[in-house]
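Structure, all two chains, one model.
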Amino acid sequence: VHHFDIAIIGGGQAGRRAAEGARSVAPDATIVILGEEAHLPYDRPPLSKEALTDPAGFASCEKRDRAFYDGAGIVLALAERVEAVDLKSRALRTPERIVRFERAIFATGSRVRRLSVPKGAEGSVYYLRTKGDAYRLRDQLQPNRAIGLIGAGFIGLEVAAAARSAGAEVIVFEAASSVLSRVLPGSLSRLVEERHRAEGVRLLLGTHIRQLAVGSNGRPIVETDHSRYELDALIVGIGVEPNDELASECGLSVRNGIVVDAHGRTCDERVYAAGEVTMHPFADGARQGRFESWQVAELQAYCCGVNAAGGDQLYQEEPWFWSDQYDLNIQVLGSCVSSGHWVVREYDNGQSASAFALGPGNAVEAVAAINAGRDISIARRLISRKKAVDRAALSDPQIGLQLLLK
Amino acid sequence: MSAVSVAVEWHLVGSPDEIGDNEPKVLKIGKRQIAIYRLGSDNFSAVSDICTHEYASLSKGFRDGNIIECPLHQACFDLRDGKCHGPVAEVDLETFPLRIETGQLLIGIPA
């Protein structure tokens, strides 16, 4: 029987950051990361971007090498899937062994939603979540190959951009009438759409897929209400769901993710959860959500590790994420609760823009920006102040946004 | 103004008056893009203008006192010593010595 002060279940970015957080306050604690994949913990943002187009692109995924873990005394149990956790006896089981722990941190992440695919076409249908997925997908992105993408969300659009850069023919199927419609107001969605079309992407919006079929040599076929598309490869990007079953089975409170407080603690005081598997409170504590982003894996997980090791730190961030497509940098900060009124601020003849969601009393609740990252920095301060802003000043790019902070 | 520990070549920047409180001066010297900020009445700082995380011009970001935030992914750097303060970036910015000679600002670039 192996014993650790802190056992971290999940070997992704959140697992690594939880370990780093724990180590920062507990130099002598024994820490193990149990990961299902054989790889060292890695960050995912490059997987849908440079890793698909640049042979060296995978290098930026691994933030720490093996020597780091050895030096920090963080034990890596890789390719070792945790099958069960017993909270009463504080033990977990893998196919290899039983591990006892004082504190456990669930950092089990998410998995992609899958489509049911006709027999024979499975080999030509791709998802993007892991390094292995990215390796397989990269081989498909070649000149003149017909690539279909289901879903015009961030992953779908980033892959579309990478596929065009690699010279592939790209068709995107999206049921909604605009891209990224859950997070961007119409005028910003249109900027993204125009850019993809200018790059040669066929963007089929408001398009419902009737069925998937299989053609010659296992080529996937997408049938819409109006047409039929035979493709070389089909990539599905229709979102993720949390890997919260293990937590649920051992009795933790789970509601679309593992429920935690601002310390990252679950309903069991010895058990924490880190990263995007968590349903956690946002900045003001009044709202909560499960949020799939670099920020949560990086910062919430670190904070959670600190607390699991005896520290006292609160995670109180507005949700924030970014996407890079071609030379478009898209960022969204905050959560838009009142479905609000967007005030749009345009720069360079509308080539870049930011949009502010105003809530009650004209306070900024959220901001979205396309190639206007400076506005995100300023909006972060505006959101935390909750003060009324001048709508006219907000929409006038001639008036410096920082003046609203005065 | 930082101490010089390696051999540098001095390049003319221009009059210190050209550098406003809110507008850094950005210049290209060789392969480097460098931004010179005014930190006080006659206190200046020269740091690499390119974020150490991904390629972005930091001078297009938001400055809050002595901290500059990258417009691309919000990495923060201290303008006084180039130290990175997270998130995202983990490598400090290169910094460059400055001096004023006969009313002109000069920057030292490693030879």
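The beta strands of chain B are 8-14, 25-29, 32-40, 43-48, 62-64, 67-69, 76-78, 95-96, 98-101, 104-110.
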